Please model this.
Amino acid sequence: MKSQPGDLRRCADVAPLLIFYSCDEVTLEERRQIEAHLAACAECRAQLNQEEEFGNALASMPQAADELDGSGKLLAQYRSELSEALDDLAAPPVHEHWQPFGGLRRWMALRPAWSAALLLVLGAVLGRQVLQWFSANGSASNAAAMNVLAAPRITEDQLSKMSVAGINWSNPSSDPDTATVQVRMQAEQPLVISGNLDDVDVRRVLTYVIANGERFDPSVRLDCLDALKSHTSNAEVRRALLAAARKDQNPGVRMKALEALRDATSDPSVREVLLETLNHDANPGVRIEAVNLLVHSLEQVSPSGPDAGSAEPAADAAPQDLQAVVAAGSSTERVIRALQELRRHDPNPYVRLRSAAALRQIGPQDLQ
Amino acid sequence: MALANDAGRSSAAQAALAAVTSLPDLDERTLVVQAQGGNRAAFEELVRRFDRDVLRLALNLMKRPEDARDVYQEAFLKVYRNLHRFRFECSFYTWLYRIVTNVCLDHLRRRQARPEDQAPDLGANHREDGVRDFFEHQKEHRPALDPERRYIGKEIQARIALAMERLSPRERIVFEMKHYQGLKLRAIGDALGTTEETVKNSLFRATRKLRNELGGLR
Model:
């Protein structure tokens, strides 16, 4: 492209410079000579027009930068990322002088599938050992906690502000009436209470958790239900279980609450909740559990078997017994009607099948 | 020795000046000196002064935000690591652009080596999206444009976008810096570490290739 001043008389010399002339990249002397040539040469003027038109087209082309970051968001994001990268650079380097298990790590890096399997096995073995260790040591620590917290009195205020960090059993395999439960609570002041289910505070905390399920983790609520299921004879516990079965957001918790009430199905309030569950619970598994429990409850009413579902009062029964039997008969009718309704209209085929099976199990009824 | 003393006094004076002046008010040289002394805030102020142009160049060349981010970050981290080597033999802007264009060249060459990794055809998107057509933007300013001319304009635009992809990485950078960053050929040569004549040749070749792509429309 280099031209000496004085050379620019022929089109062949001027034409290559027109690109630079149009974008103002020629010397003053070149400019003077080019303009002198253009004044006399129509062909070069036409070419210059083309160059300028081309330049205009380029200038008016939308730019990727405008399309991709017209708002400047990318710029702000990249600045932030650069700042983080600079932080990393500024951080003192970590020198690993000693790398334990170097050979093993190299072996694992080269064999990812084997490494994953090995780690899983190790995790399982370690987990088992640690659990055993905890259960062995837990009883001692729980016993100590019982001694320290002989009679803690938890206030309503504490209950309303607490969260539960964990629940442990000292010896879950032993008699549930004597098993010690330890509840670790996080409140303004962390608190650990422990004792068996006869302890008022332990029971209050556990029933509070399941009655106020929305504030606690479902796994904690399930643990509480596990702890309470052996004490459904207690009115306070039963109320809490009924509340959980009716209102808990988690279907697993509702189902567990129903299971816990298995031995209390003769209680009319429990049966009411079961019937309510049949009609209104959104989860088919929970509805099936309610069907099972209702069948179980009918078996309880007539120990001679579900075939005695019509529950005719015996002629020689005492007046109180008679009332109970009549009430039971009325309740049985409601159960059967509910099951028939379920068999016909439940949206879930498994629930319909289970209700049909339950009706067969109960026996022929004259309620159509 | 006297020169060293002068330089030392100058640095001390700049440090003292920086201590009483907010960073955005400091001149480029003082900021560089501060950043060379380990002042992270001064370095970030330098970044803020120049990164808009750097990102614009990267986005226009790479056409993909994630690639532009790589260029942006790699370039400024290189500047940060090598700032102590900068001796004020050229302007900081030129030195910075030398690093940025080298990073861009690396990325473009790597991309050329991977045909499956070509930039998206933004031109095609624009064609589908009538609102973004550049002649639409020009409507108010150039009411004389008739439909035929607008159609030809779309064709030119699409062909230019396609032809840009076919330029060599160096030609693309030169073309971009000249036409869209508005740099003089001498400055482009400084940034690329080459002569103005070499840059002129690259620009000439790039323009010819693009013009040839448009040949069928004329």
